[in-house]
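Hi F.,

I've been meaning to write this up properly since the lab meeting, where we talked about keeping a consistent format for the predictions we share between groups. The idea is simple: the sequence comes first, exactly as it goes in, then the structure tokens exactly as they come out, then a line or two of notes. No screenshots and no reformatting. I'm using this chain as the first example so we have something concrete to point to.
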Amino acid sequence: MKITIFGTGYVGLVTGACLADVGHHVLCMDVDQGKIDKLRNGHIPIYEPGLESIVKHTVEAGRLAFTTDTKEAVAHGVLQFIAVGTPPDEDGSADLQYVTAVARSIGQYMDEYKVVVDKSTVPVGTGDRVKAAVRSELDKRGLELEFDVVSNPEFLKEGAAITDFMKPDRIIVGTDSERAKEVLHEVYYPFNRSHDRMIFMDIRSAELTKYAANSMLATKISFMNEIANLAERLGADIENVRRGIGSDPRIGYHFIYPGCGYGGSCFPKDVQALTRTARDCDYDSRLLNAVEAVNNAQKHVLFDKISHYFNGNLKGKVVGIWGLAFKPNTDDMREASSRALMQDLWNAGASVQAFDPEAMEETQRIFGDQPGLTLCGTKEQALKGADVLAICTEWKEFRSPDFAAIAATIKEPVVFDGRNLYEPEMLERHGMIYYAIGRGRNQFHGG
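Output, unedited:
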């Protein structure tokens, strides 16, 4: 099939590449000429394992192409995927200006039946707004062309997006059109050969499904962080608690790891947007408000521990930080816990020496020549001259370090671990002091 993707960000590029990989002919459109030029030259603007090789061979095979020409993009595909950004507005709601702009463009240029697919994460009711935008442009042209609007939310985990797309748990499709169902069945047939993963429903239910899924996962994380903070006050070990409750199949082990808060492009934004949607329909979403509040507070837990260790006097101190991305296997720093920690440290007069396997360039882009920030080429360099070590991201290369070398390098043998990577007894054997999240009575809990 011929498919058009509007937007070459994380969702758009992964979607376009994976659809091209199974044989479809995909044209990705973006208004950013610089980004399109880079993509045409083989430069991938995001880090996602496996994506670069798929883009390269599908471009070479002639099944994936890039353009800034809106008219060309609309003419290319029967399917028009909208995968542009929906950043949070000032009130926390999702900003739909880019989504509706694409919908208007489709209405301006289409001359035959189209299926307009909302792939972006959008609030309930967006399908109606997209339909109205397309219809308005067709009316201006005096045309009565048929089209369908479909909600097809993405469920891609950064760092595992290719696998998630190629081997999906489910494919949610919101539509009331049998014609659109047939088109989407054909598009996703290569991903359904072992068993049918497609779940059809109405558009509004599909839109809510995406927000509900991310909010549920965010709730699990904030709940575990609440229990971790309680464990510190009670002298319990949250890692034992996690294993104890995770063994219950009704709970499971996924998303019950305590830490220094969740980040990224999805959970914070989607919880905020769903909370705003609730307010708009006069419903007080007390649980979602609490999920967000707990997470915002959790991002300052590591700083509280560091500040307490130094008796509130951090002026002139140097903190080595391992991990800057919001999670492993990505360079994404949106809403990352490391950003809150670094800002707290700078405000207190401390400086930072940081290393991340993939997010160094993104950190430089965000902070520029920030005073008190030194970006290091290796995790070892981040320790030299540092007073203590803090860990914000659970990259694999941080899991089995040389503890003796760490203790010998940093001025004080103290590790503040925001991801609970190590066993306390192991660091104690190396003569180190270990502060983690919810690891028992010796863990300062702040507050």
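Notes:
DSSP finds 17 helices and 14 strands in the chain.
The longest helix spans residues 203-234.

If this format works for you, I'll send the rest the same way.

G.
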